[in-house]
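Incident review: delayed structure delivery

Summary: a single-chain prediction request sat in the queue longer than the usual turnaround. Root cause was a stuck worker, restarted by the on-call engineer. No data loss occurred. The affected request and its eventual output are reproduced below so the record is complete for anyone auditing the incident later.

Affected input:
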Amino acid sequence: MTLTVDNIESRKGYLHATISGEFSLRFAQSIYDRVVQQAVQLGLPRVLIDARNVTGKPSQEERYAFGLFVATEQRLLAARSPELALQVAVLGRQPLIDPQRFGETVAVNRGAKFKESEQLEEVLAWLGVSGAAR
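Output delivered after worker restart:
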């Protein structure tokens, strides 16, 4: 089973995407692009990718590659649409979400606005939509 997008919806102040399936780096990158492009089309700079139904344990190399990919994609988007300061949060469970947040660190160290967490309230607060309808 590969990763699939189950639902994408505009919520108050952000785009919410729910994904499921088995983690693969290639599909994770593809889904990230798809979700971000939908957010850009809707003019929503905040994105929550709910990956709580994703299974698998990315390797350190995959975490690094995904963090690098996120940073590169955000940099390219910022060059094309500087008015859209994109923030992306991924909500998931261990082992998909690394307790040390290695992939997040890679992305953030390269200028991305990116957050990984196992706590819904944490990602909503980071996105600045904690009081928004869910």
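Verification: The helical segments are 25-42, 60-80, 102-109, 120-127.
Action items: add queue-age alerting; document worker restart procedure.
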